[in-house]
């Protein structure tokens, strides 16, 4: 039994941050930023080294973005594994956010150097690589993590808990979808991520299915608590041609206990952004979750009005989900993003003050002291007006 | 003219993080966590010192949560201001997230010590204090910031930009509301924040109006670009009694150019969580934004179908708002929260591995390597099934 | 005590339809069509006479639309009152859907002739006229009805019942709105209804307030079960000028028991169509109804997830509301409109068949027998495919 | 070429109503009421005869409900066909709303008697019957109609028109669903429709697929304008056992031009009422329609904000759809239902007045003249308050 409870996850158990390295994540990449947002917000980790790019100029530039000291900014991940493993204060883990086809070799190198690996999904390009990597992790005893972040929204976990504890009775059918539209037209040459995702030489046999189908499949199994036994797939290219690769798939699943499920995957569905949605029906109710509105869980007990559960609301959160909910209901999980924007602006303003430069054009100083005064005056005039019987007053 | 453009806000301009202190934020407080989320996610700041609580035991415990070294954990903010100002590596700024009635004295002390202050809203309890603090900031030349984070959502700024550039024509009427329900019943004795917010001795003349009305008033002025000239207010106590303080207000406003506006504030409206909503109508269109769905901006040009602008969508973002948008559309601003939960769990798991303990009960290892293998197998079987003409295959 | 129960309202109690006349409703008018839809759908009435227009050509043309025999199509409502009152089979009631300023004289004439009157709202132009008409009804003993149809949606009544029986506890605050946008620009010369609605000579002292404010005020009182004791109003012209008349009003209300309420009325709010919405908060919950989504009632018991009640769902309908719900949940109240369109098309097709003409261009024969065959074939092929193990079959 | 335009469909072209009979529709049945609502609201038809039930007592009782004279109320549909065909004023058409397995024989009898038939879907139980009936219609030259009412909502037709005229480019994929929950548990013994719908002896090889799958299939073909070439079906029983019949089906379709489509049908999906939804994606946009919100059409042009088209809005309606739209936008298609409820209440009140009885308990007289006066007083007091500068006034 652990000495910790689940609520202890809110604080680093060692009283310090773990030392983390990055492989990939140079300027132009997106996925590295998403990992970084979790790293920083969690306060469990400190990024101290990185092989951000194999191009020296991009690696150097990116290292200043990430505030990684030059001596720990590498252009060769193999060298990084070797050097960091040898340092007293070397990284304890790396996260790997390079294109999928490179995951196996990079991860293997770090695992063999005794450095834990956090690998973006899909874990590898082929099944052989996947088993190989799992084998290396087992042999070395070094932790290997694979990241499916969507299921770490509080209400996705809440859904799983409710399903597991009978809120919808026995599961009878499931439908999931992950729909995007970025691959409807030809690949955007400005995008670092679109070209390789549609290149058979790089992604192997599947494009959309590996890229987002794996998320939907994971979500479907996670939220239902059921494993798929068999599948049947039809692939289509509904957007611009992709060298024979699919951008769309209709997949039938037979889950445990003969529960039927259907999965619709597309990256060529105009108007769809990141439409990961899971719907599960049992014999006593239904439940519905949509990644684009992650704070909301719709629960329809059979014969009763549908209930809209909002993250954080008293009485609506299970034990396992509660630690994931950091904010009161209505203060959305998106709030840290707004605060981050504000702190970036204030940081910039203070830095400008310290070095004596002016602020960029177009920046509005919503934090200005005059706004602060105005708020206090507003409250005060409201009280004056009310006390005088609801009369008009100048502000 | 600045040497920077607005997109440079994404990176710390000094090539290092600014040193930040915290006043308030001890265990049990909420607002400090919100500031911290912005601090960490922005990557512009490093928290290195704090007067987290006046109670020594809570201060010490909280310092380990924030990973602040014991020698820079204070119980007396006045001492903190003195000591940090004297240190070579002292904090360059503090954020103040104590109850409102203490803002003036704390902020004044740090400003006088030459340390920049980031003060939560409302800036002070009384108008006199507000003017006093603004005066101190002016005299000392030390930056003073007041935080209204909601307007730092990308689509709130987008709304302001669209209104300013004529998307709805000339503004003709405005309605805003900020509705919550936590003050419907008596104050929750478990909550550190509810009691003082309803205590006339602590908050002064207004409760809900100062607490959330100032947010709505700021949003209304910010998004419309119009200043209020006059107001008329009616206060009510719709929830449990609060020593004569209001929990609800209906406020009429006369904006510049005689534009009428109405503001509804309540903390006793059951079913409402953080319902900050602003609606602006001009002679050529209307626009609507809701803090609980911050990614969406509804824009109705007169006589045309309503358009649903989603953050990050190509062609829908103005210049000033674009730097605030870090993720593709559909990958909601809430995603960092999910990644943070995942990184906390993986950090915890790695720490447990390092010290040889087990994981807390109830923690599901979604990151397990077997899940990674499963995803790759899933993609592969899909390709097999498709190539065989859409046949059922075991997984 | 009545010999009838409320469910008996579904059938005409006399075993026949009541004879009904129409005043107003000539081609070009809208309101007459709305009355007619209720008349026909209810099956309680038969329209047999009308003074549809004072212009003989329009009266004659309109009479064929309404299938009124020429001898009972009048151009003078006074003559109609006289003649119909004298007929053995004369109308037992008329509905009056002329512009508001004519309501008093027309209604008075029919009441005095002993014919019941169904008068569209607002009942009259002035308070004096209203009292005069009420007096005539009382003196003559002839029934006078005034129509506020929105409150006859099943879920509006359901809301009133739930509020009355304590679903939200004691009422503490209310907000209502009725927002449209047709009066944002100048009056459309094509519209028969826009010009007189904005002409002070015709509507008197108020335009939007009389036209739609009365609906919102009625809804607010009806759904809350509380009467307003006092009001305070600010008028504005937010759209094109209207000879001094308001198109927008912000109205504060003091309801019984000192419950505060606020009403926002506008016909110049771009993007708003018929946004009649009522929100009521008590000390134990809140309730919300929107005329544009009349099938849905949102109910938030304090501290519990919001419940979405859908018309007709088992267990969600009160006694008084249940007779108003004619269709299973999900088969929306709008379904009769679709059926009506279908029956009009089939009627037209059969008539064309009988007189040997062709169908109008653009009409798609969804009812064609080939579609019927196709549906049966579809079902059959599905069964074939399933029985063969889920194989592809031609249709 | 027709002498009529499509807008002429709003009026009966013969200047009279067509004489219509009913087969089925006795007390307890639902579908007959839906047909009747269209019959009445369209004003193209008059119901004059019926074989409402084979049980004499129910037939007689039901005839009074429908206001059918006793001499034209039959208990035997074969007799009705014979007698009505012989009458000078006999019915020109009948609608058949009996259980599906009886459709063939009843329809055949009336067709052979020279009476047009309006047959509810599915047209027949078997493919053989369908072809037989189509053959009889062809031989006799008597019109035979099959009813799919959902596609007669204005915005369903609008969707079809927009797709046909290129609003989403070339169609690339389609998904449709029709989900209900009434068959989750065992058949409700109170319901006249549930038992036979799940009885293999009555419905044949398919239950849900024939009952609602045919609707979804029709909608999918109608809105896309594409025909299905092949299908593959998997049947499941997700709710209570039904003698081997399916209540759920997952159906893959190959449409013309190799466009893939998927159809999900279920009557055992808790929380779903009448969820008929169609989503079509082309290479330039997507379009989405939901029967439960029939007034709204969502259209996402690729790379632009999603547009919410509302029925009746200027500039948003195509030619073929415009005649189907009878009400301004926001005045929902559901409004006739509310007006019908109101007219039923007023009809009841007038009838009670005529025969001197009291109203049923629980009936609220919203139409009372005092409400009419109150509305006029309200408007007047608003004007008084405004003119006095926005002061409080008693009502």
Plain-language structure description:
- Chains A, B, C, D: Residues 157-287 form the GFO/IDH/MocA-like oxidoreductase domain.
- Chains A, B, C, D: Pfam families: GFO_IDH_MocA, GFO_IDH_MocA_C3.
- Chains A, B, C, D: Keywords: Oxidoreductase.
- Chains A, B, C, D: GO terms for molecular function: nucleotide binding; oxidoreductase activity.
- Four copies of one chain form a homotetramer.
- The first copy, chain A, is 35% helix and 22% strand.
- Chain A is α/β, with parallel strands linked by helices and 395 residues long.
- The model of chain A has no long low-confidence stretch (mean pLDDT 91).
- Chain A is globular and about 75 Å long.
- Chain A folds into four domains: 6-147, NAD(P)-binding Rossmann-like Domain (Rossmann fold), CATH 3.40.50; 151-322, Dihydrodipicolinate Reductase, domain 2, CATH 3.30.360; 334-363; 365-395.
- The first copy, chain A, starts with 17 loop residues before the first strand and ends with a strand.
- At the A-B interface, α1, β4, α5, β5 and α6 of A face α1, β4, α5, β5 and α6 of B.
């Amino acid at each position: 039994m652990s000495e910790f409870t689940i609520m202890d996850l809110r604080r680093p158990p060692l009283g310090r941050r773990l030392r983390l390295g990055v492989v990939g994540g140079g300027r132009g990449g997106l996925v590295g930023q998403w990992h970084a947002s979790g790293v920083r917000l969690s306060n469990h980790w400190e990024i101290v080294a990185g092989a951000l790019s194999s191009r020296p100029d991009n690696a150097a530039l990116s290292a200043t973005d990430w505030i990684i000291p030059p001596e720990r900014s590498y252009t060769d991940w193999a060298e990084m594994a070797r050097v960091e493993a040898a340092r007293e204060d070397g990284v304890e883990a790396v996260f790997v956010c390079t294109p999928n086809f490179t995951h196996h070799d990079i991860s293997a190198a770090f695992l063999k150097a005794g450095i834990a690996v956090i690998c973006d999904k899909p874990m590898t390009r082929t099944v052989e690589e996947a088993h190989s990597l799992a084998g290396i992790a087992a042999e070395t005893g070094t932790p290997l993590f694979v990241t499916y972040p969507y299921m770490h929204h509080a209400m996705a976990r809440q859904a799983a808990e409710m399903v597991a504890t009978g809120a919808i009775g026995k599961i009878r059918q499931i439908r999931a979808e992950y729909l995007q539209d970025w691959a409807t037209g030809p690949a955007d040459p400005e995008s670092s991520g679109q070209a390789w995702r549609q290149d058979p030489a790089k992604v192997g046999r599947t494009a959309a299915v590996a890229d987002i189908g794996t998320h939907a499949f994971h979500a479907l199994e996670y939220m239902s608590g059921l494993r798929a036994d068999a599948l049947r797939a039809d692939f289509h290219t509904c957007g611009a041609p992709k060298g024979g690769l699919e951008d769309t798939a209709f997949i039938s699943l037979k889950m445990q206990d003969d529960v039927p499920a259907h999965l619709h995957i597309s990256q060529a569905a105009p108007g769809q952004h990141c439409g990961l949605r899971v719907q599960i029906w049992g014999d006593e109710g239904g439940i519905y979750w949509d990644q684009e509105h992650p704070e909301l869980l719709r629960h329809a007990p059979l014969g009763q009005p549908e209930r809209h559960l909002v993250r954080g609301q008293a009485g609506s959160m299970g034990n396992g989900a509660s630690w994931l909910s950091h904010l009161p209901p209505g203060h959305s999980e998106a709030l840290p993003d707004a605060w981050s924007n504000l702190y970036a602006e204030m940081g910039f303003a203070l830095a400008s003050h310290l070095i004596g430069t002016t602020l960029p054009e177009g920046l509005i100083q919503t934090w200005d002291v005059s706004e602060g005064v105005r708020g206090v005056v507003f409250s005060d005039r409201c009280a004056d007006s009310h006390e005088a019987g609801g009369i008009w007053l100048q502000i």
